Amino acid sequence: MIFSIVFICLISNVRTDFEWSIAEPLHYERFYHTMSLLANGKVLAVGTWERDNGKTAELYDPLTGKWTLTGSMADVRFIHTATVLSNGKVLVVGGENNDGLPMNTAELYDPLTGQWSVTGNLRKTEPITARYGHTASLLSTGQVLIIGGVDSNYTVLNTTELYDPMKDMWIKRGSMSNPRALHTVSQLQNGKLLIAGGTLDRSTMIKTAEVYDSRDDTWTTAGSIKYERLYHTATVLPNGQVLITGGNLGFPSTVSFNSTELYDPIKGTWSDSGDMYSYRCYHAACLLSNGTVLLSGGLRNGGYSQNTAELYTFFK
C-alpha cells in the first residue's frame, strides 16, 4: 500500500527555516526527466532514460499527493527541456532519443486534452541543430530562450536561440561567455536569468555562474556556486533565493550528492541548505503553488534509478 506522505521530519541542522519530507513515488523510475508546474497547480513529469518508458508522462496533484498517468509523447526523449508557455501548453525541446542521439524536434503538451502535438524543429542558423543537456527559460515576452547544451557532433555549445510560439519559429541570440552543458537556469525576480554550473567540454566541470539580461541580449559573470555540480537542479523560491540540489561529478562517476545550497541574489552569496533524504543526480525539481519544492526520481549512489520523491519547505 502506498501512502501519499510517509513521514515528516524536521532536519536537525543549524538552520531551522526549512524542512524536508517524503512524497509519494512516481509510477515509473525516472531520471534525465523534467517537471513543470501547470496553471491548474498540477506538475507534469516527462520522459526518462529508462527506454521502455521514455515517452511516458504523469501528473502530480499537490492536493491529493498522488501521481496519475497522462498522454505519452510521440518520441522517447531524455536530457530535454520542458517550458510552460503563456498559453498554458508545455514546450518540450531536444534531448536524446532511444538510440542515444541528440534530437532537434519539439513537442507541445495540452493540459486540457492531456495530449501531445509536434511543433517546429530547433534551428540555429543552417543546418538544423540538435541539442541535449541544454536549458530553457520562458521570458517576459512569452518567448523561450534555449541555452547551450551538446550538439550532434558532441560539442558543448555557448550558443543560444529563441523560440517564438506565436510564429512557431527559432531566432539566434547572443552567446554565453563559455560553452556550457548540463547546467541549470533560474529566472530571478528581476527578470534576469542565472545560469550555474555544468561542464565546459563534457569532462571539465565548472563552478562559474552567469546572468543573462534579455532586454539587451547580454551576458555577465555572477561568481561561482559553492560546489562543482553536474546534473543538479535549481529552483527559485518565493523569497527570490535559488535552491540548488544534488548532482554529481560527471561521467563516469556513480557518486550522487544529497547536499543542497541557496543563492541569495541580493547579497550575491551561497549558503548550505541541509541534506535531502536521498542522494540524487539526473533528477527533477519543481516549485509548487504553495511554495514547496517537489523533487523526484534521479539516480542514487551506485548509479541506481529511483522513483522516490520528497518535498522542501522554506519558511522565510
Describe this structure in words.
- This protein has strands at 8-9, 18-23, 34-37, 43-46, 57-61, 66-70, 81-84, 90-93, 106-110, 115-119, 135-138, 144-147, 160-164, 169-173, 184-187, 193-196, 208-213, 218-224, 233-236, 242-245, 257-264, 269-280, 284-287, 293-296, 299-300, 304-305, 309-314.
- With 316 residues, the protein is mostly beta strands.
- The strands form 7 sheets. It has a 5-stranded antiparallel beta sheet, with no helix packed on it.
- Mean pLDDT is 87; it is low at 1-14 and 124-128.
Which CATH architecture?
A: 6 Propeller
Overall pLDDT, averaged? 87
Q: In sequence order, what are the helices and strands, one letter per element?
A: EEEEEEEEEEEEEEEEEEEEEEEEEEE
Poorly predicted ranges (pLDDT <50, ≥5 residues)?
Answer: 1-14, 124-128
User: Which band does the percent of strand residues land in?
Assistant: 35-45%
How many beta-strand segments? 27
Structural class: mainly beta
SSE map:
Blueprint: E1 8-9, E2 18-23, E3 34-37, E4 43-46, E5 57-61, E6 66-70, E7 81-84, E8 90-93, E9 106-110, E10 115-119, E11 135-138, E12 144-147, E13 160-164, E14 169-173, E15 184-187, E16 193-196, E17 208-213, E18 218-224, E19 233-236, E20 242-245, E21 257-264, E22 269-280, E23 284-287, E24 293-296, E25 299-300, E26 304-305, E27 309-314
Antiparallel strand pairs: 1-2, 2-27, 3-4, 4-5, 5-6, 7-8, 8-9, 9-10, 11-12, 12-13, 13-14, 15-16, 16-17, 17-18, 19-20, 20-21, 21-22, 23-24, 24-27, 25-26
